[in-house]
Design a protein that fits this description.
CATH topology: Arc Repressor Mutant, subunit A
Low-confidence stretches: none
Pfam families: Fe-S_assembly
GO molecular function, one term: ferrous iron binding
Number of domains: 1
Shape: globular
GO cellular component, one term: cytosol
Order of helices and strands: HHH
Distance between the termini: 25 Å
Strand content: under 5%
Radius of gyration: 10 Å
Organism: Aquipseudomonas ullengensis
Protein name: Fe-S cluster assembly protein IscX
Number of helices: 3
Helix content: 40-55%
């Protein structure tokens, strides 16, 4: 499976699994962007990870962690 920026929910699930001690409500976008790029299944253009997509990932991660 190869993750792209459009796979917001799948990225959020991967982040929740790989960073169980992190509260997604307090993650800044610089760290979030870096963590998404570091996911083993992620393969997309880093430049496409703008603020809107990072907001969507963060919101899905928050929902996933509740």
């Amino acid at each position: 499976m190869s993750l792209k920026w459009a796979d917001v929910l799948d990225i959020a699930i991967e982040l929740a699994d790989s960073k169980p001690d992190v509260d997604p409500r307090y993650v800044n976008f610089v760290d979030l962007h870096r963590w998404v790029l570091a996911l083993p299944d992620f393969s997309d253009d880093p430049q496409r990870g703008g603020e809107k997509v990072l907001e969507a990932i963060q919101a899905a991660w928050i929902e996933e962690s509740e």
